């Protein structure tokens, strides 16, 4: 999953204007979808942050491959009228996200996707609702990351919770926030929200198996409406390493094959795909001699080269990781 660049910064309107915009729009039905596999501890840590929202979710759907992947019944842990449920689709992030969308069955105006290791600020859902109410042209948005542990060793729960608490202390009221970037190529999958009417029949591409590397970019490129980054909502992406990389060759293969596939599909520009693939391949090779303890750089590099050979022979396919 990749954070993306784009354009301008726009200041929010004054509070009176914000109140007028919010009050002129009927209450939204807001659902949160959490996909997870093999990390019940992360889900247990996340639940209090979802239940403590100043604007409670109407529905929270936990999409996991089987009961052992969550290990508890979330329904009794939510108050405020939130309906919490668990569904069991086949394993694979695109499949699990799609199952969450299908489970909504039109019973939502806004759908929010949080990773299982993302801790949202207290006003995250309220800010999302305000931001959509104020900007009718926006179909999807990603929020402000207080911190992101994905490219480092990650943050434990205590560290992440403390950072969120400091943010909430400094931001005691929900607002529609600012548009930090507009015309994004995609949204960051750990914290993204969509207007359901902008999704329509679009679904995550299940040809991208397992963790579905770049599935968030592909999906966001196919919705209607503007795609923005905003500080209307915030949180910490812990970057938990458990359950994330069990076969470095698979991820290395995906780093090349998935970008190739999405470029040919038309949801990723050639320039962006080339930059993304070469950046990851260079990192794998340059850091191979002194790799990070949590990354198998050598295996990723091997996967990169296997994908390149397949591209050259016209045989590159994201699904080949299932046989590596």
TrEMBL record:
Q: Does the keyword Iron-sulfur apply?
A: no
This protein's UniProt keywords = Transferase
Domain of life here? Bacteria
Any idea where the Glycosyltransferase 2-like domain is? 81-199
- Transferase found in the keyword field: yes
Short name of any one Pfam family annotated for the protein: Glycos_transf_2
Q: A Gene Ontology molecular-function term?
A: transferase activity
SUPFAM superfamilies with a match to the protein in the record: Nucleotide-diphospho-sugar transferases
- Family matches, as InterPro entries: Glyco_trans_2-like, Nucleotide-diphossugar_trans
Q: Which CDD domains match?
A: Glyco_tranf_GTA_type
Its name, as the record gives it, is Glycosyltransferase, GT2 family
What is the native source organism of this protein?
Answer: Jannaschia pohangensis
Top-level taxonomy: Bacteria, Pseudomonadati, Pseudomonadota, Alphaproteobacteria, Rhodobacterales
């Amino acid at each position: 999953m990749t954070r993306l660049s784009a354009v301008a910064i726009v200041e929010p309107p004054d509070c009176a204007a914000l109140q007028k915009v919010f009050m002129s729009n009927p209450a939204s039905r807001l659902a949160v979808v959490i996909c997870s596999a093999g990390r019940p501890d992360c889900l247990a840590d996340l639940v209090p942050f979802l239940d403590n929202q100043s604007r409670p979710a109407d529905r929270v759907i936990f999409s996991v491959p089987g009961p052992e992947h969550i290990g508890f019944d979330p329904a009794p842990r939510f108050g405020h009228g939130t309906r919490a449920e668990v569904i069991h689709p086949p394993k694979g992030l695109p499949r699990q996200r799609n199952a969450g969308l299908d489970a909504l069955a039109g019973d939502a105006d806004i759908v929010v996707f949080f990773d299982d290791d993302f801790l949202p600020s207290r006003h995250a859902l309220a800010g999302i609702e305000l931001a959509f109410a104020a900007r009718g042209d926006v179909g999807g948005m990603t929020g402000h990351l207080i911190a992101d542990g994905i490219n480092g060793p990650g943050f434990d729960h205590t560290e992440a919770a403390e950072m969120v608490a400091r943010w909430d202390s400094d931001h005691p009221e929900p607002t529609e926030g600012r548009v930090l970037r507009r015309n994004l190529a995609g949204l960051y999958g750990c914290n993204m929200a969509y207007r359901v009417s902008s999704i329509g029949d679009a679904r995550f591409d299940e040809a991208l198996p397992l963790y579905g590397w770049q599935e968030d970019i592909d999906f966001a490129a196919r919705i209607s409406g503007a795609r923005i980054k905003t500080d209307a909502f915030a949180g910490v992406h812990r970057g938990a390493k458990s359950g994330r990389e069990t076969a470095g060759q698979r991820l290395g293969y995906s780093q090349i094959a998935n970008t190739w596939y999405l470029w040919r599909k038309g949801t990723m520009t050639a320039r962006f795909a080339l930059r993304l693939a070469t950046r990851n391949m260079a990192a794998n090779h340059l850091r191979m001699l002194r790799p990070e303890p949590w990354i198998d750089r050598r295996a990723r590099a091997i996967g990169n080269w296997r994908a390149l050979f397949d591209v050259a022979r016209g045989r590159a396919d994201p699904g080949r990781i299932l046989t590596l």
